[in-house]
Amino acid sequence: MKAARYEWVVVTEATCRPDSTDWLETLSRYMTKDSDVVAAYTAYDKDATASHAYLRLTNWHRQLRHPYRYDGACLAVRKSAFMQRNGFLRNLQFLHGEYDFLVNETPAERISLVRSPHCCMRQEPPAPAAWAAEQLYYMQTRTHLARATLSRLLFVLSQGLLHTAYIATLAAITAGAVMRWPLIAAAGVLLLLGIAATRTWIIRKRAKALGEHIATWKMPLLDLRLAWHYVYYQCRYLMTDKHDFKRK
């Protein structure tokens, strides 16, 4: 970074390729005097699993609301601001998470998130072992990130309400069937379908806007699976040796 000749430096990965010939021009429009970091969405290739694509999509929309980290591989960084904040100094002790720390150390009002599909990157999906490692590294990294509390609290609240809604409707359907209350059972079925259809419509709209390819029938299942994804990796993380995440 120190050797860069210009004020703005674009950072990406060897596993990525632009999804449009206009990606750099589109990215440059957000490099204004009011920004120190510009982040663009990074979609996985079409052969990625639906869970990979959905997690990346969900993380991006969480970042749009509260940009405290970055799950992707296309950043433009203002060199002077990077040097002033001592660059990657905070995460030098860790093996992963440099993008998360770079965004986290930048004030939220100085971060620009590119919403245009013309600036998307395509990334090769990681191998299963690499994917699992990424999730565990994030469990370590997030304990050192500022501005994370509100985003995580809202995520837990939304997932809690979603699961409660599904459980309540299933309970109504079961009670209606057992007690032979057809109107309650029918109302429960309609409500269940309505919740699933609404969530699917939202996810499909977001995925289409960013070029993610997720089968429609999988969307409500992935929506419910998301919370358990984090529970699973949090449990795995608790059983790991924390020194494995640090440079020797």
Give a written overview of the molecule.
This protein has 248 residues and is of the alpha/beta class. The chain contains 8 helices and 7 strands, in the order E-E-H-E-E-H-E-H-H-E-E-H-H-H-H. The protein has helices spanning 23-28, 50-65, 79-84, 98-104, 128-141, 148-178, 182-210, 219-238; strands at residues 8-12, 16-18, 37-40, 42-44, 74-78, 111-114, 121-123. The strands form 2 sheets. Strands 1-5-3-6 form a 4-stranded mixed β-sheet. The longest helix has 31 residues, at 148-178. It is globular, with a radius of gyration of 21 Å. The model has no long low-confidence stretch (mean pLDDT 92).
Task: Considering the chains and any ligands shown, give keywords for the structure.
248 residues; alpha/beta; four-stranded mixed β-sheet; three-stranded mixed β-sheet; 8 helices
Distance between the termini: 24 Å
The helix/strand class is alpha/beta
SSE order, one letter for each helix or strand: EEHEEHEHHEEHHHH
Strand content: 5-15%
Q: Indicate the mean pLDDT.
A: 92
Ranges where pLDDT stays below 50 over 5 or more residues in a row are none
> Any idea what the shape is?
globular
Oligomer: single chain
Rg estimate, integer Å: 21 Å
Number of helices: 8
Order of strands across the main sheet: 1-5-3-6
Number of strands: 7
Fraction in helix: 40-55%
What does the main sheet amount to? 4 strands, mixed
